[in-house]
Amino acid sequence: MKSILQYVNPLQGTASTFTFSNGNTLPLVALPFGMAAWSAQTDEAGKGWFFHPSHRRFEGLRLTHQPSPWIEDYGHLTLLPQTGALALSSAKRSSSFRSEEMEVKPDYFRIRLQRYRAVMELSPTERCAVMRMTFDEREEARVIVSPFAGESSMTIDPERRRLTGYTRANSGGVPDNYAMYFVIEIDCEFDVPACGIFDKEFQESFRLHEEGDRTGAFIGLRLPESGVAVLRMGTSFISIEQAQTNLNQEVGFRSFEQIRTEAAASWEETLGRIQVEDRNEDKLRTFYTCLYRTCLFPRMWHEYTEDGRKIHYSPYNGQVVDGAMYCDNGFWDTYRTSYPLFSILFPARLGEILEGYVNAYKEGGWMPKWSSPGERSAMPGTLIDAVFADAFVKGIEGYEVNTAYEGLFKHVLEAAEDPRFGRKGSDAYNRYGYLPADQFHESVSNTLDYVYGDFCVAQIAKGLGRLDDFRSLMNRAGNYMHLLDSSVGFMRGKQADGIWVEGFDPIEWGGAYCEGSAWQCSWAVQHDVMGLANGLGGREAFLAKMIELMTADPKFKVGSYGFEIHEMSEMASIPFGQFAISNQPSFHIPYLFAAVGAPSHTQYWVRKTAEELFSSSPEGLPGDEDNGSLCAWYIFASMGMYPLCPGVPEYVIGSPMFERMSIQLENGNRIVVEAGSQTEGKPYVQSVHLNNERHRQLYFTHDQLMNGALIRFELTDTASHTYVDDQDLPFSMSIQRMD
Predict the structure, then answer these.
(1) CATH topology for 274-678+731-738?
(2) What pTM value is reported for the model?
(3) For FRET with 737, which of 291, 299, 605, 727 sits at 20 to 30 Å CA-CA?
(4) Which pLDDT tens digit goes with each residue over 230-284?
(5) Class of CATH domain 9-271
(6) Which residue stretches of 477-598 are H helix?
(7) Which helix (H) or strand (E) holds 716?
């Protein structure tokens, strides 16, 4: 069997800029969900966009924890082998390289530096890495360790061939005592007179220890005859001693080749949970590259003591405590796709992730919303509500359910004194049933996310037997009707006095809407699609509205943003109407057709989107990838199903893209999806059979999948526009049916 890694291209989506996103990704070399990741750096001045595939200067291999260019990095530094005259700043030390001489795989990085006549290779573990440097010339060889703005410390120990230190470089979301600690060991002698420290102005001195703002180090090397030196690096957010423990446990005395073999095996096992068969290898490359991206975040933040105890530095209270921790995730992005996919592929891992979020609540007093590594408070809502609800109704274990519910219900009842936490405007929402647009920015988007969050928390309340809470929350789950203006056919900003905000224009972005206009932000009622449709005049009127959305001119007005943000540009650049697949609030829009009984439109638009807008190339994603969320959307599109309403254990049926897909479940069962030998040009589903019986519902349940499922699709190139019977619609599509 072919290696799956051959299909993965970490350069996918990296051809992005501040003004236009083809993914806004990095070419990350890391283990699945690993704490430490590595990326080529070609432009430090680009801040969050520090790599671009068109660049031909290499500034160093960067230890990175960046989850998004908009969030930026923390605990970061660069490593670079160098020969000749000492050059320290990123611009002065950079070396040209040939693109064909840079190899990037999830398990391996290699580059040849033209200026320094040296080859640099790296392979990762979860918290450490091994780097091999091969120099053509042995004279004046060194390695540079360069951190970023913030206090750092460097201690060079020539006798032990060791560099230890820390950096406090960060972009926010950390306590005052935060640091990323490291230990570097090199397997050759140090040239002590050529070792030293440099400061933030890149002025060098030949001391062996220093602390200060952006203090870095350069280590002269006495190379062996082979010209090869191997560097082993351990990292920790706890201490230098823990970094050494991590290095001993994860690397020890294993060779570079052994570490790479283990890294490759880890990825093969993770990606191999799904075996895809198709004669079109471009589709395989897109699929497995997307699956790789989905398995990078959230990032493990816990470490292990020498006796195997799980501990972590808390980015919420600054203490070292027991248990799991995961960071670097925006739930507004990932609740829609990533976590539902984890519930199928990695339920045990998901349980540990949720344990980490419960620990975050214990340590900080609130459930996280956007952690990097602590609370960054970006984006509307408290959509971790949906993450826990979806896991709960699917029977995911491994976390304290009652403590989780306590933290989630706190969102419902309380307003946080610290504006980073909880729901913004919680008191006003509880009073009016919506956020008044004359008091709060992005009032429509926040309100709809609160309403859906209430629905999600209600599902846990019901399962825990808290029926009073359940009934109260389900009543609040209809609050979206406060903002539905049937006269204009959209959700609309409303003032505290109950009067609509004047000057409504459905193509105007901002104001009451987050990163969109009324066209993109009016449909976040996944839990009551039929109720939404009825509020707009019934199923026929709703269907006509959705068709208009997908086919309208992609016009926009910049609105309160005052300039053209990249999401506007990305929507306008493709002929997909007002769909704006580039941003998460649009993910579920094409599945709304199936939710009201018109599945052929879902099948057409999902297939068209996946086939035309996704690839494994550097331009291969139609907008911000955001912690795996966009790539997980593609995985579900390929499977022929989608979690339209996380918090309800159902998947709305779409149109599968591969001839055959086999998913190995952790419980020993398999999901097999067969679509025949010819799927291209046949987006429409003529019939579905589940375990050899005709399946008429427009959804699969989670239990049907987890019990083992053989799903056979018969596809055709001819659409059927007849409605499906109401009893075959997804059960989640009416909150009245959930009572």
Answers:
(1) Glycosyl hydrolase family fold (1.20.1610)
(2) 0.96
(3) 605
(4) 999 999 999 999 999 999 999 999 999 999 999 999 999 999 999 999 999 999 9
(5) mainly beta
(6) 518-521, 529-535, 539-551, 566-572, 592-595
(7) strand 709-716
